[in-house]
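User: quick one, fold this
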Amino acid sequence: MRHVRQRLSFGRTILSALMIATVMCSCGKDGDNADPAPTPDPDPTPDPTPVVTYMTMNTTTASGMKITKISDYRYEINTTNADPYIQSEKLTTALGKDSVVLTFDYQSSADQSFLQLFFSPIDEARSIKAAGLVKSTGWKTYSLNLQTQLTQFSWGKVGQYIRWDFGDASGIKMQIRNIRFRGMTDKEKQEAQEEQDKLAKDKRMATELKDYLAKSFASKITSVKVSSTKITVQGTCSGAGSFSLCEVTPYDDVTEISKFDASRRTALTSASFTQNLDRFVTLDGVKYDRLLSKWVIVRDGDTSDELVSHAHYADNIEASQSLPKMKPTSKKGLGGFFVNAYESDLDDLGITSATVNVTLAGYMSLTAGGNTYAHEYCGKTYYFNKSAIDGLDNTLRTLQKRNIVVAAIILIQKASDINAQIGKLLQHPDYVSAGIYSMPNMTEAASVQCYAAGLDFLAKRYCQTGSPNGRIHNWIMHNEVDAGYDWTNMGAGRPMEVYTDTYMKSMRMCYNIARQYDENAEVFGSFTHSWNSPAGSAALYYSTRSMLGMIVKYSAAEGDFHWGVAAHPYPQDLNEPKTWNDTDAKFMMSTPLVTFKNLEVLDKWIKKSENMFNGNEKRSLWLSENGTNSRSYTKTHLEEQAAGFAYAWKKISQLDGIDGIQWHNWIDNRVEYGLRIGLRRFPDDETDPAGKKDVWYAYQAAGTDKEETFFEKYLSIIGITNWDSILQKFILDN
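Assistant:
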């Protein structure tokens, strides 16, 4: 995707805090330089207890920054690269047991994307990440409650220290003063207790979801069909008692409902039943499309209902039209396509598939404007920015006229980046500011309606006979959800089961909406290369394989649907194109990572019968975002990048479980942490702006009669004599 990436492969894992940073305006004057050294600077926000431990910086450890010590407790910092960090001095006295809030005052010339702290001894698993410092010319106070982390890391002893990582941007000037640990205020104690209560609730729900998916029920819903006006549900009941068919909306949690109300239940009068229900109803005060719901059988009780079946989504959705089924005619694709001066690459490279970023929330509004498209959904009108939609039309038409198969990547921006009303509705209520994007809000009726309206607008517009506006064939749901804290955020420390349950709701909603317009539409789950080894702390990140395993269980329990995998098998180190040297990419299902080196693992997984659609149809597998890097534009580095692609292509072309690769980036991008993973150079490169790199020509030759001759020069770079030796024939199941 065409935006900043945060990955293990950069050499420093970006891990995350289990709390939200609090930033408060202080009463200090702008540019206040009074230094009462050797005592701390005047504190604009008095601490709640007199027990305060002050920290100082070890200026000799600074990297990626210039630091000047103004006084014992005050520093000026200028960041000089995208990885600025410094260590504190070691503690000379142990922290008091109640000194758990890290607080400091600061000024900053620009917003910082995050603040990352490593607690000695330095280790990835002992790292947290929190909200960055916001731009301020006056003093602000930043506080971070570290009660959980100090206990977890057993940190606060004499001799221990912290490494501070101030975001990922150079050219930022800041001052920081009065770094200290203090006790919690009454408000902070209340917030900490609320956080603990939420974590306990999540833990309980995670256990209930696991039990629900693993349970074998005697009663069963066998079919759910959706027509233009009706929902037809069939099933069987078994056992004593009276039973009801109950509706579970996307904003309900099936394991959390103790008693279904009358608006969600229909009494069942026979052991084998067929219920015909109106598709459109008024529910919770709004017109609602039951296409979005799933259905469950319960045994009626006076005060509580007992689940006696798994819930079941629609199996068959009547499409309003018949669109041709399209599959890529080759395995060569392009990631993050957008219209620019190099459109001819689509033809010159032989591109047959592409991904397009769709920042849905940014298009939407609840009020009409002079430059909007109106779209009515369930009796309510939503509005879409005409300029943005016209631009998307142009992109999709450009691909459509070449019969290129398109997957739209559905992204939900954080509320602060978009229309305030839409942001309030669509941003997940547990989102924390470290996330680049948000999981959609699936907890409230109005939010679900808004999200559904956005998806319905896109599907109706881009799944039309004749494709007048271009066509979306497949839908990639969000980005790298196994690294969800960074890319599809719904809070910190959410159990994988709870997170995946929400993700499934989003996938199912998009699928059901798209299938009413296009009977061939598929949705894809988006994942990093972190197959068994999460990209960071296990409390905050998940493994691809564990999430996929849970999605398979949901499909078996609640009715299968056409979902596929959008994998991002970047090299182990994104900077290093020699992916054949990846040490954590092993030829077994238990491999930590899946990179270009061991794509055979993905190929085997997708072809296992237990992972197939209904046990007999291979799911689609796109390598929807990936590429090798050229460390510079020197001859050696350009050749190594191309060799990395050639190595990957020789595997991809022989693995029939993989349907295609969508190369990312198309063009080198300055915001990609200095990476050069594009087929073309930086557009502002001084010597050859957007010039074709060696990998461009290798990509062009791939899959043609020129491939063998063109690729021959890469054998010696890889250190092999022929391509037959790179494909692993046997993959261990363990």
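User: anything notable?
Assistant: The longest strand covers residues 136-145.
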